[in-house]
TrEMBL record:
PANTHER family: ABM DOMAIN-CONTAINING PROTEIN (PTHR37811:SF2), BLL5343 PROTEIN (PTHR37811). Pfam families: ABM (PF03992). Residues 17-85 form the ABM domain. This is ABM domain-containing protein. The gene is yqjZ_1. It comes from Streptomyces hydrogenans.
């Protein structure tokens, strides 16, 4: 399935860019990722996300939130915190997180 770029978000809003390096299919990862997706979509202020992964294990997920309070609520969510701790111990070789404020946004889509 091809994921289309997320568009139509009215700035300002915030992004959390999660870049990671991990094996392609570590045990338990897919289930936990699905649980986290199900959980984050219910968070007030969550606007959507985009994700991509290379065959070599480099992944980038960009999550969009209306404001910093919404993003912080996700960062501090108990299940999300537990998943992050488990991931550091079992799945990830390295990761980085970058938080940014989007002040302008535009896109293109071929008809």
């Amino acid at each position: 399935m091809t994921q289309k770029p997320l568009s139509g978000l009215e700035p300002p809003y915030y992004t959390a860019v999660f870049t990671s390096l991990r094996p392609d299919a570590p045990e338990g990862y897919a289930e936990t990722a699905a649980d986290m997706r199900d959980r984050v979509v219910e968070m007030p202020g969550y606007l959507g996300h985009e994700a991509a992964r290379t065959p070599g294990g480099l992944g980038i997920t960009v999550a969009y939130f209306r404001d910093l309070e919404s993003l912080d609520a996700w960062r501090l969510d108990a299940a999300h915190t537990a998943a992050k701790e488990y991931g550091r111990e079992h799945w990830y070789e390295a990761y980085s997180v970058h938080i940014g404020k989007v002040e302008r946004s535009y896109g293109f889509e071929r008809e």
